[in-house]
Amino acid sequence: MKKRIFLLSTALLFTITSLLAQDVPVGVVLAFKKGNSQELNKYLGDQVELTIQNNSKNIDKKLTESTLSSFFANNKVNGFTVNHQGNRDETSFIIGTLVTSGGNYRVNCFFRKLQNKYLIHQIRIDKIND
Q: Which residue blocks in the chain are alpha helix, DSSP H?
């Protein structure tokens, strides 16, 4: 039993350490998993290029949160999986699948490093045709 607890603790510590070492804030992934635009707002830059279903606009942080809130209200989120992520110099990105009551969506989220933290400057949400 003690060996099992030790192994679980070690695995948890390793997972947390690897998540903290990433350039993509863990809170962004959790916010998408919950469909929580208020939580996502903490990671938005002042201006965001938001594209939902080929409707693109360059908007401020407050309007981005409001638009995402409406999207999440119309598409109840059941889960989010990160399929790919990467970084280069002062930028990073995640590509994931958002599972909702209205179908599955591909989410591309791009970050820029500003004042030692990564902020979202672009989000693209496109429906996946299954």
A: 2-20, 26-34, 37-41, 61-74
Which structure tokens are listed for 26? 């863990």
Domains and CATH numbers, the chain: 24-127 (3.10.450.50)
In this prediction, residue 80 carries a pLDDT of: 96
Task: Read off the pLDDT of residues 75-103 as tens digits, 9 standing for 90 and up.
Answer: 999 999 999 999 888 899 999 999 999 99
- Read off the tokens for 71: 């999207």
Taking the alpha carbons at both ends of the chain, their separation in whole angstroms is 45
User: Long-range contacts of range 75-80, CB-CB < 8 Å, 24 or more positions apart?
Assistant: 75/35, 75/100, 75/101, 75/102, 75/103, 75/105, 76/35, 76/100, 76/101, 76/102, 77/32, 77/33, 77/34, 77/35, 79/33, 80/29, 80/32, 80/33, 80/107
Which phi and psi (to 5°) does residue 116 adopt? Answer: 65, 20
